[in-house]
C-alpha cells in the first residue's frame, strides 16, 4: 500500500493509537471491579458511543445480510466477548507485562486456526514464528513458575484471551467485505456486550453499585483504548500497510509495561523481559511482509 502525501501524519496517528491501546490494562486495574463487570461495561459503553455513527449503515446493511453471515457475526461477537472476559480476568492474577505480552500472541493463534479451519498453509517463516512464540511464552511461564499458582492461572487466561481474539479475527474475516466497517464493528460489539451481560449474570457478577472511580474507568476503557485506539488503528490502515500497522502495535506490550512500572511499581523480571523479547520477535516474523 503506497503511502499518501500525508504519510507522516498517518504515522503520528498510528503512534497515538498505540498509546491509547497501551493504557487499556492500566484502566482495568484502576477500575477495581470484577473482571466480567469491567468487560461488560467496556463493550456496552463503547457500543453506545459508536451507535450514532454506525446506525445508518447498520440499518441499511444488516437486514440484507444472509443467514450464514449472521451466524458468523454472532460467533465473531461471542469470540470477542470471550477475549475480553479472559484477558481482563488475567490481570487479576498476573502482572500487566506478562498478561499483555501473552495476549498479543493472537496472530500466532490466527495462523493455527486458519490452517485448521480454512486450510491455509503456513510457510517456513510462519512455522518458525510459531516455534519462537512457544519458546517465549514458555520463558515467561518459567519466570512465574515459582510464584503463586494463581499467577500461572493468570498467564493461562491471557493465552486464552489471545486464542479467542484470533478466533474473532478468523471468524469475522469474511464479514468485513459483507458489511460496512462501522456496521460490522457496531454489530459485533453489540453481540459481545450481550454475551458478557449473560456471562456476568451466570457467574453472579453484580452490575451495580460501583464507586465513581469504577464508572470513570469503565468509560475511559470504552473511549480511549476501544473507540479511539482501535478507531485510529482502522484509520491508519487507510494510509499505511497492514504489516506496518501491525509492527507498530508491537509497541503496546512495551508501553503497557512501562506504564505499569510507573504507576504500580510492577517491574518485569529479567526472565519475563527475555521471554517478551522472544515473543515480540516471533510476532515481527509474522507481520513482516513477504518477499516476492
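-> sequence recovered:
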Amino acid at each position: 500500500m503506497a503511502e499518501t502525501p500525508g504519510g507522516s501524519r498517518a504515522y503520528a496517528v498510528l503512534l497515538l493509537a498505540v498509546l491509547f491501546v497501551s493504557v487499556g490494562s492500566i484502566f482495568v486495574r484502576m477500575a477495581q471491579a470484577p473482571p466480567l463487570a469491567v468487560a461488560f461495561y467496556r463493550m456496552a459503553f463503547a457500543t453506545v458511543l459508536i451507535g450514532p455513527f454506525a446506525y445508518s449503515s447498520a440499518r441499511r446493511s444488516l437486514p440484507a445480510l444472509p443467514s450464514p453471515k449472521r451466524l458468523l457475526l454472532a460467533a465473531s461477537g461471542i469470540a470477542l466477548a470471550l477475549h475480553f472476559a479472559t484477558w481482563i480476568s488475567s490481570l487479576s492474577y498476573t502482572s500487566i507485562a506478562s498478561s499483555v505480552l501473552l495476549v498479543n500472541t493472537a496472530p500466532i493463534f490466527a495462523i493455527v486456526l486458519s490452517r485448521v479451519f480454512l486450510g491455509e498453509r503456513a510457510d517456513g517463516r510462519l512455522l518458525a514464528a510459531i516455534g519462537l512464540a512457544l519458546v517465549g511464552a514458555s520463558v515467561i511461564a518459567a519466570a512465574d513458575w515459582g510464584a503463586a499458582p494463581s499467577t500461572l492461572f493468570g498467564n493461562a487466561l491471557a493465552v486464552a484471551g489471545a486464542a479467542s481474539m484470533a478466533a474473532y479475527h478468523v471468524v469475522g474475516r469474511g464479514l468485513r467485505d459483507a458489511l460496512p466497517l462501522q456496521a460490522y464493528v457496531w454489530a459485533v460489539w453489540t453481540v459481545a456486550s450481550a454475551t458478557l451481560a449473560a456471562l456476568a449474570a451466570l457467574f453472579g457478577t453484580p452490575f451495580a453499585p460501583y464507586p465513581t472511580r469504577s464508572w470513570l474507568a469503565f468509560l475511559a476503557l470504552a473511549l480511549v483504548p476501544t473507540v479511539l485506539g482501535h478507531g485510529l488503528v482502522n484509520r491508519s490502515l487507510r494510509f499505511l500497510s497492514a504489516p506496518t500497522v501491525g509492527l507498530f502495535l508491537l509497541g503496546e506490550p512495551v508501553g503497557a509495561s512501562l506504564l505499569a512500572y510507573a504507576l504500580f511499581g510492577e517491574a518485569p523480571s529479567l526472565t519475563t523481559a527475555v521471554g517478551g523479547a522472544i515473543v515480540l520477535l516471533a510476532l515481527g516474523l509474522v507481520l513482516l511482509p513477504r518477499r516476492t
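The chain has one domain: 7-287.
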